[in-house]
Structures are given as structure tokens and as C-alpha cells.
Write a structure and sequence with these properties.
Elements lengths: L2 H57 L5 H15 L6 H17 L4 H77 L14 H40 L3 E6 L4 E4 L1 H7 L3 H4 L4 H5 L3 H8 L5 E6 L2 E14 L2 E11 L1 H36 L8 H32 L7 E3 L1 H18 L3 E5 L7 E3 L1 H17 L6 E9 L2 E8 L31 H11 L3 E7 L3 E9 L4
Parallel strand pairs: 7-9
Antiparallel strand pairs: 1-2, 1-5, 3-4, 4-5, 6-8, 9-10, 10-12, 11-12
Helix pairs in contact: 1-2, 1-4, 2-3, 3-4, 4-5, 10-11, 11-14, 12-13, 13-14
The chain binds adenosine-5'-diphosphate (ADP).
Adenosine-5'-diphosphate binds next to helix 13 and helix 14.
Length: 564
């Protein structure tokens, strides 16, 4: 039954109870009132008339007005005959009264009047008693019926009081339990109500909603799983090795390349604390320890492969939630670089012979035995010689560089005098310096200890410093070259008063092919300082630069002294 019907029936029933009780009460009261009215009208009035007539009779015949008074009351009595036998008695009363009026000495008539008045009185008094009995019966009957109806209604109302709150509250508590379950993401919750009313409709709607949510959650889960598989596939297809960690360095995932390189199985290490895994795995240890972006040489794919490590921090709203280490496979670039180096080495080597023969030819041309040259021809010849020198320098730099890149630096380390190296270098750049009127001052204290060095390569570095100093200094300026002892090392420095180098370029100055932007000198390759660094570091030394824009630069290197 619908809740609305139940409520209507309940309230309707109460309404009916009120109506029934009201009508029944009104009917009962009205019946009692009718009985009372009837007693009053039919009997009480008759008693009044007969009383009046008795009074009048007692005054007769002396009081003449009593005749009329008797007559009036008798007439009213004749109009108010209600009880059986009353009509007969009243008729007899009239007969005897008429006889007594015509003959007041008729004693029999007088006595009869008394008798019939008494008779009328008795009839009415009996009637009053009878009617009183009927009224009390009616009241008793009404009380009984009201008690029965009240008991029945009280039982029904009691059952309503007991059952009705449950009809409303039970489904509501079922529904609120269901809603709480949904709020806690328990989408399997269903509500089954036995009744067929608005609450069961609500429960059905709830079940449909829960089913839809359940379906949605499962489909979202399926989509997330699908996306996960797709991302895993993409990561596994990559040529770079990728390992993911959580913020506490537990391994979350590793792709196939990473597994192959480390020799680990993803399933076995997932969830493990990475430093624990690193205890038994060299590569993992290197990956966790070394934060630099240095190249890693690893044997992979049946050959030596090169990787660069990159640490990517995973952040969520500024908070670090994990880290991904990517080992970028740079083997193809390495191979290309190697090919380039080999090509440069071959070309520079092959160029050296023709350039040398150009120089030789130029020298022969200058010989008077070959023939005299006029002034212009001599200038052209000088220009050929300068360009041949520059070409030779460039090819030798390229050759040096290719040696450095292939790791083929051949060092001839032996004890060498610092003064000898400085003299050799100054001599080599003297001609260039003179052309720019630059004075090279040498400050080498006497008694400097010998150093452990490859003389040729160390001179090469100092020559490179001096060439640059001359190149980037204005005419008529000073360049100072000095050697000094500091601890167990001898330092060589070249100071110029040129335009200096911007501080921001200093860290890149020793990089290969780097030239300070805005350098007007076109002839440079940007390799000199890079080669110098390699040469000095290969000998166990250190190299540095200090420079201020507008004030000049100071390049230096140090090498160990010979140990006794
Ligand atoms: P390059 O053959 O171009 O001279 P280097 O490696 O010797 O190559 O020098 C790299 C760059 O450093 C130069 O291009 C130049 O811009 C800058 N540089 C080197 N020495 C000096 C110096 N003494 N003064 C100013 N700039 C210099």
C-alpha cells in the first residue's frame, strides 16, 4: 500500500472516529433531551393543571372566580392528553364538573371530581416514572456503546501508535545506511524493502544509482589499468633505460632496457629499497651515487654503449613524491662523433703534407737563386706564408684535438726546467708580438725546481696562452709571463691587459669549439684552451683563468715538481 494511502487512511480513520463519536454523542444527548422534554410537556404540565383544579375545587362553591379558574385548567388538560386511560378520566372529570357546576350540592359529583383528578395524577406520575426508566436505559445504552466504540478505537489507535512510526522510520534508516555505504565507496550496497510504496520507489532509485556508480567505478578502473598498460608499453619500447623510485627510494618500476643493463628482474626488485639492491649491483650503485651528468660506458647490445644519466625529480604541488633516473642512450651520437673525429684526424693529417710543401715552395720562391721578386710579389708571397702557417696551426690543433677525443694523447713525461719551457714559448710568439709592438716580460725566479712534464705539450699550452694574449691585447701593451713555485707545484701564468672576458663565459672557456661571443678574431677554432686543459690534466696538473672585463685576463696552469 502506498505511503500516501496509509497516511490518508490513518488520518481518515481519526476523522471518522471524531465524526462517529460526535454524531453518536449528539444523538444520545438529543434522545435524552427529547425524553426530558416529553416528561415536562406531557406529564409535568398535566400535574400542574390538576393541582390548580384541586385548589380551585377546595375554594368552591364559595369563591365564584374559582369556577372559571377550574374551567381554564380543565380545558388545558383536555388539550394535553398523552397517556392511555387519561382521555377516559378527563372525559369523566368534565362530566362530573359540569354536573357539580349546575348543582353545587351534588356531593357525588364533587367526590367524583376528586377521584378523577387523582386518577389523572396517578396516570401521569406513573408515566413520569416509566419515562425516567426509559431515559436512564437510554443513557446506559449510550454509555455501553461509547465504551465499546472507545475500546475498539483505542485498540486501533494503539496499534497505529506502535506500528506507524516504524512504517516511516524503518525505510529511512535502511536508506541512510545505504547512503553512508555509498559515501564510503561501497557501491555493492543494495536496499530491499518489503512494502510497495514511495519508500520502495526510493529504494529502487537508490539501487539503480548504486549500480551505475559501481559500473562507473569499474569502467574508470579498467580505463586507468588500460592507460597504465599503455604507458608501461611506451616506457618499455624506449631505447633509454628508465627506473622510477618513490620519495623513500623504493623501486617503483624499471623498463626492459634498464632491466637488461642492470641484469635485474623488474618483478624481483619492484618495491625494494634501492640502496639495498645497489649492494649487489654495481650499476645501480653508480646510478644512485653519482649525480653528475658524466658519460657512462656500459656493455650493452653486444657492444660498448654510452649513456648519460639524468635525474628527474617528480613533484606534486611542490612536494617531492619520487624520482626517475633516465639513462639516455647516446651510443649513436658517440659513433657519429667518433666518425667525425676520425674524419678530422685523417683530413688534418692528409692536409699537413701539402701545406708543408706549400711552405717549402714559398721558401724556395723567396730564394734569390730562383729569381728576384718585386715588392708586390714579395708581399703576396708573405701572405701565402702567413696563411700556410695559420693552416698548419689549425690542422695541428685539429689533429691534437682528435688525439684528445680518441684518448690517444702520447705523453713523454720527463723532468723539465720551467725556465726552458718559458723561453721556448716566448721565442715562438716573439715575432707576432713585435708586429703589434707588444712587450713580453718574463718573470722566472732563479732556482725553480724541475717539473714532471711533457716539454713539447707544456710549451704548446704556454704558446697558446701567449698567442691568445697577443691576439686579444691592444698594440703597445704589456704581456707578462711568469713561473713560480707554490707547494709541490710550479705555476705558469700569462697576464695581458686586453679587453678581458665576461664572467658568465668563464665556466665554458675550456669547452671545445667555444669562442666568447663577439670575438672579432675570425681565425681561431675555439679548440686551443680545450686542448690545453686536456694536455695539462693528462699530466696531473690544473688549469685556470681569471679575468675582468676591461682589465685583462690571467691564464695559468700548474704541474708537479720532480720528487726526489
Ligand atoms: P681560439 O683559437 O679561438 O683562440 P681558444 O680556445 O684559444 O680558441 O680560445 C677560446 C676563446 O677564448 C677565444 O675565442 C677568445 O674569445 C677567448 N680568449 C682566449 N684567450 C683570451 C684572452 N687572453 N683575452 C680575451 N679573450 C680570450
Amino acid at each position: 500500500m502506498r505511503l500516501k494511502t496509509k497516511l490518508s487512511l490513518g488520518i481518515g480513520f481519526l476523522f471518522l472516529v471524531i465524526v462517529v463519536f460526535g454524531i453518536f454523542g449528539m444523538v444520545s444527548i438529543s434522545r435524552l433531551k427529547d425524553d426530558a422534554d416529553r416528561v415536562l410537556k406531557n406529564n409535568y404540565e398535566t400535574l400542574v393543571y390538576s393541582n390548580n383544579m384541586l385548589k380551585a375545587l377546595n375554594s368552591l362553591p364559595a369563591d365564584t372566580s374559582a369556577w372559571q379558574f377550574f374551567e381554564t385548567n380543565l380545558r388545558q388538560q383536555e388539550q394535553n392528553i398523552t397517556e392511555p386511560g387519561e382521555k377516559e378520566a378527563t372525559f369523566r372529570l368534565r362530566q362530573n364538573f359540569d354536573r357539580y357546576r349546575s348543582n353545587p350540592s351534588d356531593f357525588l359529583a364533587f367526590t367524583n371530581i376528586h377521584r378523577y383528578l387523582q386518577r389523572i395524577n396517578d396516570l401521569n406520575q406513573e408515566a413520569i416514572l416509566r419515562k425516567n426508566r426509559i431515559a436512564s436505559d437510554t443513557a446506559e445504552e449510550a454509555t455501553t456503546w461509547m465504551a465499546i466504540i472507545f475500546t475498539a478505537l483505542a485498540l486501533i489507535a494503539f496499534s497505529l501508535v506502535v506500528n506507524f512510526p516504524g512504517i516511516i522510520s524503518n525505510p529511512i534508516s535502511h536508506l541512510s545506511a545505504g547512503i553512508s555505504a555509498i559515501a564510503n565507496k561501497d557501491y555493492s550496497k543494495r536496499i530491499h524493502l518489503p512494502q510497495k510504496d514511495e519508500f520502495s520507489d526510493l529504494a529502487n532509485a537508490f539501487n539503480i544509482m548504486a549500480e551505475k556508480l559501481d559500473e562507473y567505478e569499474h569502467s574508470t578502473l579498467a580505463r586507468i589499468k588500460f592507460e597504465k598498460t599503455r604507458i608501461e608499453t611506451v616506457i618499455n619500447q624506449m631505447r633509454d633505460a628508465i627506473i622510477g623510485f618513490d620519495e623513500k627510494r623504493h623501486i617503483l618500476f624499471m623498463n626492459t632496457v634498464a632491466a637488461a643493463l642492470t641484469g635485474l628482474r623488474e618483478k624481483e626488485v619492484t618495491g625494494k629499497y634501492a640502496p639495498d639492491v645497489a649492494l649487489k649491483n654495481d650499476l645501480m650503485r653508480t646510478l644512485l651515487q653519482n649525480d653528475s651528468r658524466a658519460e657512462l660506458k656500459i656493455f650493452a647490445d653486444g657492444k660498448e654503449s654510452y649513456f648519460i644519466k639524468e635525474n628527474i625529480e617528480v613533484r606534486n604541488e611542490g612536494e617531492m613524491i619520487g624520482e626517475v633516473i633516465v639513462l639516455r642512450n647516446i651510443t649513436p651520437f658517440h659513433e657519429l662523433d667518433e666518425a667525425k673525429t676520425n674524419f678530422i684526424a685523417t683530413v688534418s693529417h692528409e692536409l699537413k703534407t701539402p701545406i708543408s710543401s706549400i711552405k717549402m715552395s714559398a721558401k724556395l720562391l723567396d730564394d734569390r737563386r730562383v729569381g728576384n721578386l718585386n715588392k708586390e710579389q714579395q708581399e703576396l708571397l708573405q701572405s701565402i706564408r702567413d696563411d700556410a702557417d695559420r693552416l698548419l696551426r689549425i690542422t695541428s690543433e685539429l689533429l691534437n684535438m682528435s688525439q684528445v677525443e680518441t684518448g690517444n694523447i702520447q705523453l713523454k713525461i720527463q723532468p723539465a726546467q720551467p725556465s726552458g719551457i718559458v723561453d721556448q714559448a716566448v721565442q715562438a710568439v716573439q715575432f707576432q708580438a713585435q708586429q703589434k709592438n707588444i712587450n713580453i716580460r718574463t718573470v722566472v725566479p732563479a732556482g725553480l725546481p724541475a717539473i714532471q712534464a711533457d716539454t713539447e705539450k707544456t710549451s704548446w699550452v704556454l704558446i697558446n696562452f701567449l698567442t691568445n694574449a697577443v691576439k686579444y691585447s691592444p698594440e703597445l701593451s704589456d704581456v707578462e709571463v711568469s713561473a713560480s713555485i707554490s707547494g709541490d707545484k710550479v705555476s705558469f701564468t700569462v697576464k695581458d691587459h686586453g679587453r678581458g672576458i665576461d664572467e658568465k663565459y668563464l665556466p665554458r672557456l675550456f669547452d671545445r669549439y667555444f669562442k666568447v661571443p663577439g670575438t672579432f678574431e675570425k681565425s681561431g677554432t675555439g679548440l686551443g684552451l680545450a686542448i690545453s686543459k686536456e694536455f695539462i690534466e693528462a699530466q696531473g696538473g690544473a688549469i685556470w683563468v681569471e679575468s675582468n672585463i676591461g682589465e685583462g685576463s690571467r691564464f695559468g696552469f700548474s704541474l708537479p715538481v720532480v720528487k726526489n
